[in-house]
Amino acid sequence: MNRVARTLSRLFRLPRAGVLAAAGFALAIGAGVAHADSPTLKIGTATSPQIDALKEAAREAKAEGLDVKIIEFTDWNTPNAALANRDIDVNYFQHIPFLENAEKQGGYKFVAIAPGTIMKIGLYSKKVKRFEDLKDGATVAIANDPVNGGRGLLLLQRAGLVTLKPGADYRATTLDIVANPKHLKIVQLEASQLARSLDDVDLAQGYPSFIKLAGTADPNSALLFDGLENKNFAIQWVVRPESVNDPRIRRFIAIYQHSPQVRKELDKAFGNLYAVAW
């Protein structure tokens, strides 16, 4: 008879069969308590106005007994490395094309388990009000990563500034440009730094969230935005394969998606520059 059973026997003077059943019940209760007191859920994200919505969801989760820590990263590479290294349990900052490229480059094996928000990108300028006013040889900045750079090139094509090879998609590179009538000088910068390039270039691909953080322009002032209809670019909740059914993660996502206060924080941060994809 184990120690738990002996203790129960002394307390309740149960026969052996009853003691063993009670011991099993006590252990089951103990397992339930351990699950309720599970370790802090660590969520990684890239610095963005999105952080206030995540913190609000974390506050609401705390009120429901789920402890959540939001960890900010200042670049778009570390959140995946941190997930792979088990420093965090889930990350929330990337869309599917970015994730696919990160898996290819870093050898990661991750799973996107739920969509979040879709963010617009735009073409911003502090030098001109119309694309027609760009001078020959103007400098244009786009993202330097393979996915977001392609998204920027597609936007330049929509603006009528360049022509890409037929069938080019978000994986396009500058090598896919077949016509550049204004002889634009295209420079590539880390996506999070594009907002700070507006004083130095004539036109830049921009993310409203980073534009807002940098305070370099009105996030709504883009000369052209892409649409919000392509759910391929929705930010995803990304986990390691063994965490796909982690109830803590599923519970937090449900809080994030259904909380009116979270939605208010998103509206405050992004106005009409985002949409939900769930």
UniProtKB/TrEMBL annotation:
It is found in: Membrane. Belongs to the NlpA lipoprotein family. Pfam families: Lipoprotein_9. Residues 1-36 form the signal peptide. PANTHER family: D-METHIONINE-BINDING LIPOPROTEIN METQ (PTHR30429), D-METHIONINE-BINDING LIPOPROTEIN METQ-RELATED (PTHR30429:SF1). Gene3D superfamilies: Periplasmic binding protein-like II (3.40.190.10). It is a lipid-anchor. This is D-methionine transport system substrate-binding protein. One of its GO terms (cellular component) is membrane. The keyword Calcium does not apply. Keywords: Lipoprotein, Membrane, Palmitate, Signal. InterPro entries: Lipoprotein_NlpA. SUPFAM superfamilies: Periplasmic binding protein-like II (SSF53850). It comes from the Bacteria.
